[in-house]
Amino acid sequence: MTSRRLLSSLAVAMLWTAGAQAQTLERHALIVGANNGGPDRPRLHYAVADAERVARVLGELGGVGAAHETVLRDPQAADLLAALDRLKARLTAARASGRPPARTEVFVYYSGHADERGLLLDDDRVSYRTLRERLDALPADVRIAVLDACSSGSFTRPKGGTRRPPFLVDESAAMKGYAFITSSAASEAAQESDRIRASFFTHYLVSGFRGAADTSGDGRVTLNEAYQFAFAETLGRTVDTRGGAQHPTYEINLTGAGDVVITDVRQTTARLVLEDALEGRTFVRTPSRMLVAELYKPAGREIEIALAPGAYDVKVERGRATVGATITVADEARAVVRAAQLTPAAPEPTRRRGADTGDHAVQGAYRFTLQSSLWGTHGDAMSLGGWRPDITGGALLSRYLTERLAVSAGFTVYGSGEQVDVIGGFALPLGVQWNPRRGAASAGRFKPFLSAQLLPITAADSEWSRRYSVGVGVGAGFDLHLSPAFALGLTGAFNAVPRFTRTAGRHDTYHGPELALRTSWMIGRGR
Q1: Across the chain, which distance is largest between two alpha carbons, in Å?
Q2: Which of 32, 101, 170, 241 is the least buried, fewest Cβ under 10 Å from its Cβ?
Q3: pLDDT tens per residue across span 200-253
Q4: CA-CA-CA-CA torsion for 164, 168, 173, 178, nearest 10 degrees?
Q5: Which helix (H) or strand (E) holds 223?
Q6: pTM flag (> 0.70)
Q7: Which domains does the chain carry?
């Protein structure tokens, strides 16, 4: 064989080998972000952004090509089901082709609203049963589903999903089956934070994918490493929040030795390296203050984080002290952050623990309100432009059935103004209150409302002769939440109250307008 023929044969063999290797693993991703969970739920701030971050890291480090990635932003339920059907058709066609991939993996991610029965997309629902059936029908060697939503643990409950020890890790990476990961237990709220501008779980999952979870130090982040990192960080950072501790869960049915590698930090040549001497909670931000990675860095282990080339603000919290430096990560280089180069810095901007959820959701909570009002109409009281009201005071206890609807019961005590032959009396208002704002606005600080109430009312004169009546009232007002637990408000109403059964001079009814100042305290947590 001539040297030319030998070289040609080697070239053909090399091309065939490269092609065979390229066909070894094919990874598909369906990424869904839904801020809109319907008119009765607060609009999320970061679900779509969470989905985009997951898509970005899987594209950069997870081997998901653009042709195999689908990102849905605020879809309808039909859109999600159609995307799953298209994914199934694409996988089926690949298996039926002349050169099917030796191994196929599917990664499905959802960030948005959910309840105990399924995913909530606008005013529709995809049940967990339907979702599981669609995922089980995908013809792939490994199916991974990650749900970052309230009560998403219900998705794993039917087959006994729970917090369990890590699944087996081996270098062979020959696992087959499925793994379903949820950001919260069945009865828990999944929380997002204004401080990190993301959900807690997805923020730490992506930080883990970028290398923070690589406990083995081999440059690859496995599913087990990513889950364990996200679990510990999410639990640790939510235990004192207003929403309460959040426990990610998973259900697995993976057979064979090994673990599924999700990302390979070595895919990018620009890496930020935290040297082994560093210790403390570490934050990595872009110049625009976007938090791209957060982790507790233990001493004695070097950690590499894959990033795009550029300048980053690195801060390390050591007890009460904070040190930091600006580090430039160049392409084709490793930028090492050494303890010796860090100098005292301003503390990492954050909020008091318990305020991280960033909104003022009230669904499920109670509200205790004290109010003082001007109410009623009679002859010889003070006059405000012809309106002669009494000064009243009272209290209400309200229960928020949804973010926008509350029911209340209370009492109002009133005097006689200048009418000496009427001592006063009390009313027992029973009412409903409805917030007309929709989506995220309904969970904001400013909560306008329309109200209606039933007014059983009684009065007594100086001879303790009782008078009774039952009226109704309609009104409008607002509460301004100065903190998640405290609000001030104003109410205007008109109360239609028939005359008392007996009169007392000119003071025989409390029919007329009402103007009230409110001070309220929230009891319990909103969801």
Answers
A1: 128
A2: 170
A3: 899 999 999 999 999 988 999 999 999 999 988 888 877 766 667 788 887 877
A4: -30
A5: helix 223-238
A6: no
A7: 17-265 (3.40.50.1460), 270-344 (2.60.40.1120), 366-523 (2.40.160.20)
